[in-house]
Every structure is written in C-alpha cells, then in structure tokens.
Hints:
The chain is α/β, with parallel strands linked by helices. The protein has 20 helices and 13 strands.
Amino acid sequence: MVGHTSGALLVFGLCLQLAHAANILAVFSYSFPSPFLLVAPYMKALVHKGHQVTIISAGNHLADIDGARHIRVEMLDQLMEDLSNYEFDDFPMNKWQEASMTAEFFYNSSRYILSDAGVQSLIQDKSAHFDMVIVQASLTDALYGFAPFYNASLVGLSVYGTAWNIDYLAGNKAPSVYEPMSPDGYSNGLGLMQKLKNWIYITEEWLLDQLVYLPTQMQLYKRFFNKSAESLYNIRRNFSLMLINQHFSLGRARSNVPNVIEVAGMHLENPSDQLDVYLQRFVDEADHGVIIFSMGMEITEKWLPQNLPQILHQSFSQLPQRVVWKYEQTLPNKSDNIYISPMLPQRELLAHPKVKLFITHGGVLSIIEGAYYGVPMLCLPMYYDQFGNAERMKHAGLAQIHDILTMTVESTTNAIKELIKNPVYAQNAQQMSKRLRDQPMSPLDTAVWWTEYVLRHKGAPHMRISEEDMSFMQYYSLDFILVFFVRFGVAIMIMTCVGLKLLSLLLKPSHMRLSVPLLN
C-alpha cells in the first residue's frame, strides 16, 4: 500500500511539474566566450526545472545542454574571427568611432541570426509556440521581435551589469542619469558642473542610440518580422524582467524597479577548473605570495600597447612574489618568478590563500570573482564597462587604477607594492567578499525564481512602473525646478531692467535729468 501511495505521489509530482513547464526561446548573439559563463548555468537550471528550452547561439562557446534544443548560427563564430583580425589603428577611439564599430558588429550579429536557415525554419514552423523569449538585453533590438511574434513575455539578460539603456528597457527611470554605457570620461562627482557634464554625456549616448545603434536594428526588424517601427518602440517598453549581472554590495547601490533583478555571481555556479600539478606547486611554494595577471578571455596580445609586456616583465622580475600571467606568447629571458600560460583557471587561483593581488582589465566577471574571493586589484581598463567597474573598486578602497597607455616600470612596481603591503586594501577586499556572499539564496536560484515568477503571472505586467505613474520630469522634480527658475528668471529680468533704467538716468547730465519732468 505504501509503495502504491509513493508511486502515486511521484506521478502527481511529475504531472504538476509538467503543468508548470513552459516553452522558452533563448536568443544570444554573443560571439565570444565569456557571456556564456552566465548563460550556461542559467539555461541548465531552466531545463532542470522541467522547461522546454530552445537556444539560438553561436556554434562555439556554449556546449550542448542535455534536454535543450540548440540552433547553432555558425556565422556568429566568423564574426568574432573578423573582429580578432580588425586593426585597431585608432585605439583608443572616440565615442563616435566606438559607437559606429559597435553598431556594425551588432547589426551583423542580429542579421546572421535572423537569416540563418535553422532560425528561419523555426520562424516558418506554424506549430512552434513559446511562452517566454530571453534575449541579451542591449543593442540587439531586432531580436526583440521574437517576443511579439510568439506572443511571449520578454526577458533580458544583461551580462555587463547595467547602463541607462538597460534601465530604459526595464522602465527603470530613476538611475538613468548616473549609468552611462561607456563610463570612460564620465564623472562620479556631485558638483553642479560635474552633474551638468554627466547630463551632456548621457544625452550624447542617447543620440548615439537613436542615430547610430537603433536605425540598423530597425531595418532588420522591419525586414524579418514585417512590422512597423512603432511596434518595435512598444516592445522596447515591455520587458517583463531584466536580469543584471550586478549586485549592490559591489559598490553600486541603486533604486531598481521590481522587474530589475541583480544576479551578480550567477556564473560562479559553474565548476571551476583545477590547477595542474606544476602550477599547483608553483603557487603552493610561493613564500612571499602570488600575483595573478589576466586581461580576460577576449583581450589578446595585439590589443595591448607594444611596450606593455616588457614593462610588466621588468616590473614583475623585481618582485619577491611569484606571478601567474595569462599571456599568449613566450617571453625571452623570462624571470624564474613568472609562470606564463595562454589559459588560466582564474577562479581556482583567486581562491588560493597565497594570492595577494589580482591585476585585471576590470571586466565585470573578473571584478565579481576578485570581489567574491576578497583579493585586492590593480585595474587596467581598456573599454566599455571596465572603466566604471574599476572606479567602483577604487572607491570601495580595494583597488587602484592605472592608464594602460602611460604605465611605466616604476609606476607599476610602486602600485603593486602599495596594494600588497598596505593592509587596508586586503581588509576592504575581505569586507566586500563577506557582503557579496551574504545573500538569502544563490544568484542562480534568484534568476530562476524570478523567471518562473514571470511565467506564473503571464508576463507580470504589475512589476513594471507605468509611464503614466511618474514621468521623468516628475521624478527629478524638473517641473518644480522649471517653474522656480522661470519665476526667478522673470524676477531677475525685471529687476535688471529697472536697475539699468535707473542707472541710465543717474548717468545722464544734470540738465537733462531736470528737463525730464518738463517733457511730461
């Protein structure tokens, strides 16, 4: 009898799970590997929860997930090869050059997906049905068209944290003036002139979005979904959920609306690679500690200033610490305290108790890992979000920032010594680690729970602030400020006119002043 009861409960549980299972389409145009460190555990977790998941992605970077359907777009891999062969003669680029190159990149990535034979076969399949569409959140607007095409709720995954355009898509108007897409040159100050500069900075980015990024995506949207421009604008205002790879403990406390969920550290659910025997011994036997130097998965030698490897080698060779260096080339006359490899088990290294310093480009995944394991950082940002990430670590007191174009052996060595010898940096890093780890549930569980919340509540429109509830002008009290300054300005103008009139009378010769009443 007990066996029959348990069997019935099992069948009931399976039926209940199937009843709540959803068809989910996930579309990722990433053509480089690091974003898939977040995508993979997220997709695996949704499959594990019983959902039917179809993934459109590049041919490489994302391994097959048991239980998920994969549509591979091979041209996305070619796109990354083309980028790796690009000659960055004008680096660093100005904002317009960077935007033009970025817009072309994302135009091609969206076009390759929408024109792919496998994707077109899915679109033409009249029996295909999806309850939810998950997309990378930024600069791939043409791909948002899958949501209305299947009458599905739309979820965004922002791998690089957040920016004003992500806030716009989520209906999160409050922090829009504080979060640029490209923070290089952006001010974190609170003075009036600095705030004015930031307003101008964000306005420039808004213009780039409207004049550079969006028009090319709009062309693809109209071409492949045969919809009007207005319908795309409506989609951009109807994201049900925005998962951002950020957390307030990382130095960015922000006023999020309910449908913006912070999931920084979601990629830490991936199993970490182990150290090989030689590297393990190299690290274990480091009497003075270990320094890790890595510029991430995508930045290769050709992106770096030509003299940088020599500067770093000269600096590292002077140090008592051992250095584990992610680098694609071998160095002539390499110092014995340096270990070089084109690939490193970064998380496993950062977790090692002998690691004293992490020299990083400031990519968001590296910043999260460094903070999670409580390691001080020397940040060498190069582009996009890296500048803002580095600034937050510096502001939190666990990092320094160096300009990669002006580094010298002396400045590098001095910075490394200061970061290692001054205990304040390590203390602040440990404090941030404790805060980041102290969460009610894991970032991955958080992402899955809110994803299913949106499914349970049919898109959860109640989570999004209505545009009629609070306008941009009202939120920032610009209506009051406008009225105040108009009134104040009118008063000043009247007083100025009266003062000028009185002054002109006083400056007139005395005989003219006396004759004035006679004219009346």
